[in-house]
Design a protein that fits this description.
Number of domains: 3
Structural class: alpha/beta
CATH superfamily of the largest domain: Ribonuclease H-like superfamily/Ribonuclease H
Strand content: 5-15%
Shape: flat
Distance between the termini: 75 Å
Radius of gyration: 29 Å
CATH architecture of the largest domain: 2-Layer Sandwich
Strand order of the largest sheet: 3-2-1-4-5
Largest sheet: 5 strands, mixed
CATH topology of the largest domain: Nucleotidyltransferase, domain 5
Number of strands: 5
Order of helices and strands: HHHHHHHHEEEHEHE
Length: 261
């Protein structure tokens, strides 16, 4: 009698759970279970063999209804999440593929530029560029400067010395990308003080603008707490509104180069 009551209560709980689930979620779980039956029907030996179409079905269902991981038994939930991350990387690799632009510099030309700059340390970028033109090699001065070998210390104060001498008056700002599970892009803004590596401001948006970044600067440094220098990269999102707000707050803008630490 007790076992019958337990079985009846279990059945009632399962029926209530099914009633609470949405129709689309139930259909997704049914598709996942049917696909697992198909995979198991192809089983040969002691190991389940999955095809790419099977992985695609499970990943698509997981994107729509993440709760279907409870109905997956042929693979571990961590495996399904790893497939989704792999598909995410493949998607953005396809989105960021090369679509024209400036042609690549041949390996021989890059090696020649390095050799000329190494064997002639007193030659600058214009001299090496002129020598290449006389050899019939078409390359811009910026390309020559990019592949030259840098020798010796900088004549003026370097970035490391600048950060060491002015750490109390320096803050930095950076904007990086956060990828969501649905392949959307969110932009996170971080403002950091260099004195004690103190986080001054962090904010997230789907549409970063110069006005939005300028408002974050105001929120990060209220009243008279603004630093003297603000380091940033040369992203085009730092527009006129941003630079105008920096001047109004008495902050000196310091864009860095690609070779800065």
């Amino acid at each position: 009698m007790e076992r019958a009551m337990i079985a009846l209560l279990t059945w009632l709980l399962l029926a209530l759970r099914l009633r609470l689930k949405s129709r689309a979620r139930l259909e997704a779980e049914i598709i996942a279970l049917r696909q697992q039956v198909i995979v198991l029907s192809r089983k040969s030996g002691s190991r389940v063999r999955l095809r790419n179409i099977d992985r695609l079905v499970f990943v698509c269902l997981y994107r729509l209804f993440p709760s279907i991981v409870d109905a997956i038994i042929v693979v571990k939930p961590e495996t399904l999440i790893r497939w989704h991350r792999r598909g995410f990387r493949a998607y953005w690799h396809w989105r960021s593929r090369r679509r024209g632009g400036r042609p690549r510099v041949d390996h021989e030309i890059r090696a020649l530029i390095r050799r000329m700059s190494k064997e002639n340390p007193l030659w600058g970028t214009p001299r090496i560029h002129g020598e290449l033109l006389m050899l019939g090699i078409e390359a811009s001065e910026s390309t020559v400067g990019r592949y030259m070998i840098r020798t010796g210390r900088p004549r003026s104060q370097g970035w490391k010395a600048f950060l060491r001498n002015h750490a109390n008056a320096v803050a930095s700002i950076d904007l990086f990308v956060v990828r969501t599970i649905s392949f959307r892009l969110l932009y996170a803004l971080v403002i950091l003080r260099h004195t004690r590596r103190q986080l001054a401001r962090i904010a997230v948006t789907a549409n970063p603008t110069a006005e939005w970044i300028a408002n974050q600067i105001t929120e990060a440094f209220p009243w008279d707490t603004a630093p003297r220098y603000l380091l940033r990269d040369r992203d085009c999102v730092y527009g006129h509104a941003f630079t105008k707000r920096m001047r109004a707050m008495g902050i000196r803008d310091r864009p860095i180069t690609t070779r800065s630490p």
